[in-house]
């Protein structure tokens, strides 16, 4: 297995799927010659040309609508929305159209659309370019939501998302693009949607997380180990469908659950997971379920300010200690 | 040149649409359809004139006021009524209702309950046609109010820039629910919006089925030649309120009377056929009789059908893998 960057894993997944299936194409803002503002579509235009790698006007609603229309006539579009913050501009096409088309037509059509986007705090992008808005999308029946934390997962999950016959919101993280890791090659390599991955085995507490916060959680687990606390880190990878079985197995083993996400606490997906653990495994819990999430503020610009808002490994360590 | 048999076809189609809508209204009034209906009565010449010449493999996108488009594309009246009545035999198994009836196998890419939202979808279907290098076209129907949405702007602009095979058909019935178009748009002629996209705009009497057919035919031919989209405005009027629970009292009585008595697309077309001796009354009466029977049988089918299944509803939120795309999907030929 070769070691490549997260963003290279993504462009490699796109490249392989476009080679494998000529109905797969990419459209979005600056995805063609420019290669995407985070270079996750770099090189594809040179290989596949303007018919299959399409620069669009700045029209998020139009991009997702066009992807849906193309899917209905037999194509498998990957529509890039540059920042997850901008999915708000496309929300009618995402939530009212893509998500419901199969259902509303009585199952007459499928909607194999991937909405590829990215989120999270990163480069001083402030309030309109740094959000974690996955729970907007998990709330809509008909959508699948995928948030990979490693290059390995990013490639395998993107390939599965493209092959899926349902609309998938695929959310990358801007601070992960330059992270490196081992990544397999070839058509056969995919990761099924809806399967969590235990990134670290442990017996004292279960830390449930996704996207970049998985890396922070792993760092926190290393710090906790020095104090003799053995944390298990469950990377959900796919928020919807949710791998509840893996969560419950882990929590039943450790008796303690901490959920870590970069999104605001109120209305965040951590609340949903907490409720499910309480409903399904209450008798196994030795402590209340703990959520470690961003403050309920917009993401500020200055570094000390945004660091105060989002979780990090120190805050995770502190949170875990509170329930042990 | 329109032949006599084509004219009688167009007459039959308009009469079928109106009869369906009137039966729909009766079933709503009797409480058989619990959802509201957005009736197409008064606008029949647009669906008939635009869709009559389309090929089976051509696509349309429809709206909340979409029954007429479906009937013109060949949809089964029994399955349509069954959907209004919430039956399992309905096109969408009772999950869609009036606003979302579609038959994907006839190239109907959904009927949209959100004003303007079908426009980018039509653009995407046309992008797919161009991608696959086919000579199909998409007819995208929407009302006057839809032209003021962001979806309309984004969708038409993208289709214009990419020269896609789509015709944007604006059914200008002068009102967006209760608000007259004059209060929502500063243009006298909505077709003039086309100038902002660098595409042709054509305005036509939407109650004259032959004029609509001619204008739509030219726009479709242009799209099929690869010359890009046209904005076709069809001026018309809806006889009922916005939906069946709206009495439409915000419209002046004399205005409604004028459109119903002087501008009825079906009555006027019948008079034209009779005056020019292209049809005799008994021919038209025969059409009326046949359609009335067709409507009765279709409604009976719907009434006798089983209610929608809750079990199937829950399992169809997500598609299983490897399902066929019924709208002609599969592998594209590049």
Instruction: Give me the count of strands of chain B.
Output: 8
Order of helices and strands of chain B: HHEHHEHEHEEEEHEHHHH
Mean pLDDT of chain A: 97
| Spans of at least 5 consecutive residues with low confidence of chain B | 322-334
What is the structural class of chain B?
alpha/beta
Assembly type of the chains comes to heterodimer
Write out the strand line-up for the largest beta sheet of chain A, numbering strands in chain order.
3-2-4-5-7-6-12
Structure write-up:
Chain A is an alpha/beta fold. Chain A folds into 2 domains: 2-183, Rossmann fold (3-Layer(aba) Sandwich), CATH 3.40.50; 197-322, Rossmann fold, CATH 3.40.50. Chain A is built from 11 helices and 14 strands. Chain A has helices at 6-20, 44-52, 60-72, 91-104, 134-138, 151-163, 213-226, 244-254, 269-281, 303-309, 313-322, and strands at 2-5, 24-28, 53-55, 76-81, 114-119, 144-146, 168-173, 180-183, 197-200, 205-209, 231-235, 238-240, 257-264, 290-294. Chain A has a 7-stranded mixed sheet with strand order 3-2-4-5-7-6-12, sandwiched between helices. Chain A has a 5-stranded mixed sheet with strand order 9-11-10-13-14, with helices on both faces. In chain A, strands 1-8 form a two-stranded antiparallel ribbon. In chain A, α8 (244-254) crosses α9. Chain B is of the alpha/beta class and 334 residues long. Chain B has one domain: Rossmann fold (3-Layer(aba) Sandwich). Chain B has helices at residues 4-29, 44-51, 67-73, 77-84, 118-131, 150-161, 209-224, 253-261, 265-275, 281-304, 310-315; strands at residues 59-63, 108-112, 138-143, 166-172, 175-176, 179-180, 201-205, 230-235. In chain B, the strands form 2 sheets. A 6-stranded parallel sheet of chain B has the order 2-1-3-4-8-7, with helices on both faces. In chain B, a hairpin with a 2-residue loop joins β5 and β6 (179-180). In chain B, α1 (4-29) runs antiparallel to α9. The longest helix of chain B has 26 residues, at 4-29. Chain B is globular and about 50 Å long. The two termini of chain B are 37 Å apart.
């Amino acid at each position: 297995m070769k070691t490549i960057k997260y963003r290279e894993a993504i462009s490699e997944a796109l490249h392989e799927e476009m080679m494998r299936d000529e109905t797969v194409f990419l459209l979005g803002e600056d995805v063609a010659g420019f290669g995407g503002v985070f270079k996750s579509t770099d090189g594809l235009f040179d290989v596949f040309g303007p018919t299959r790698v399409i620069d669009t006007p700045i029209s998020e609603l139009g991009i997702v609508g066009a992807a849906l229309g193309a899917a209905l006539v037999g194509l498998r579009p990957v529509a890039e929305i540059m920042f997850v913050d901008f999915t708000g501009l496309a929300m009618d096409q995402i939530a009212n159209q893509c998500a419901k088309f199969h259902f509303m037509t009585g199952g007459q059509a499928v909607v194999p659309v991937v909405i590829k986007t990215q989120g999270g705090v990163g480069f001083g992008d402030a309030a309109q370019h740094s959000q974690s808005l996955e729970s907007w999308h998990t709330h809509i029946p008909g959508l699948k939501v995928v948030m990979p934390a490693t290059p390995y997962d990013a490639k395998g999950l993107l390939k599965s998302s493209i092959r899926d016959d349902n609309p998938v919101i695929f959310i990358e993280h801007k601070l992960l693009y330059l992270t490196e890791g081992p990544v397999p090659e070839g058509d056969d390599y995919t990761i099924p949607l809806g399967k969590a991955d235990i990134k670290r085995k442990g017996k004292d507490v279960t830390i449930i997380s996704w996207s970049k916060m998985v890396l922070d959680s792993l760092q926190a687990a290393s710090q906790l180990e020095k104090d003799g606390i053995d944390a298990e880190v469950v990377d959900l990878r796919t928020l919807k469908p949710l791998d509840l079985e893996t969560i419950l197995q882990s929590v039943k083993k450790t008796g303690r659950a901490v959920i870590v996400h970069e999104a605001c606490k109120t209305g965040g997906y951590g609340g949903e997971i907490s409720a499910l653990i309480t409903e399904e495994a209450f008798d196994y819990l030795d402590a209340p379920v703990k959520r470690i999430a961003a403050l309920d503020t917009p993401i500020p610009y200055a570094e000390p300010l945004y660091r105060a808002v989002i979780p990090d490994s120190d805050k995770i360590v502190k949170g875990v200690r509170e329930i042990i | 040149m329109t032949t006599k048999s084509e004219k009688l076809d167009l007459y039959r189609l308009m009469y079928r649409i109106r009869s369906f809508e009137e039966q729909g209204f009766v079933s709503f009034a009797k409480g058989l359809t619990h959802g509201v209906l957005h009736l197409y009565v008064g606008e029949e010449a647009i669906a008939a004139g635009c869709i009559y010449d389309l090929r089976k493999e051509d696509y349309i996108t429809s709206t909340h006021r979409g029954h007429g488009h479906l009937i013109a594309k060949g949809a089964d009246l029994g399955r349509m009524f069954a959907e209004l009545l919430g039956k399992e035999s309905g096109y969408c198994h009772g999950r869609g209702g009036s606003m979302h009836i579609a038959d994907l196998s006839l190239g109907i890419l959904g009927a949209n309950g959100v004003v303007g939202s079908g426009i980018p979808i039509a653009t995407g279907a046309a992008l797919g046609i161009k991608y696959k290098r086919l000579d199909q076209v998409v007819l995208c129907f929407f009302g006057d109010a839809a032209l003021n949405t962001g979806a309309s702007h984004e969708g038409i602009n993208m289709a214009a820039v990419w020269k896609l095979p789509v015709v944007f058909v604006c059914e200008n019935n002068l009102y967006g629910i209760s608000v007259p178009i004059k209060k929502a748009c500063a243009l006298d002629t909505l077709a003039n919006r086309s100038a902002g996209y660098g595409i042709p705009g054509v305005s036509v009497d939407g109650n004259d089925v032959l004029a609509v057919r001619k204008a739509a035919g030219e726009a479709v031919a242009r799209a099929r030649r690869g010359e890009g989209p046209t904005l076709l405005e069809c001026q018309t009027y809806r006889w009922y309120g916005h939906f069946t629970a709206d009495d439409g009292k915000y419209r002046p009585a004399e205005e409604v009377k004028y459109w119903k008595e002087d501008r009825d697309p079906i009555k006027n077309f019948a008079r034209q056929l009779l005056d020019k001796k292209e049809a005799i009354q008994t021919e038209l009466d025969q059409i009326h009789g046949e359609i009335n029977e067709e409507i009765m049988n279709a409604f009976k089918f719907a009434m006798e059908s089983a209610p929608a299944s809750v079990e199937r509803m829950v399992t169809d939120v997500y598609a299983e893998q490897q399902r066929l795309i019924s709208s002609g999907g599969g592998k594209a030929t590049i």
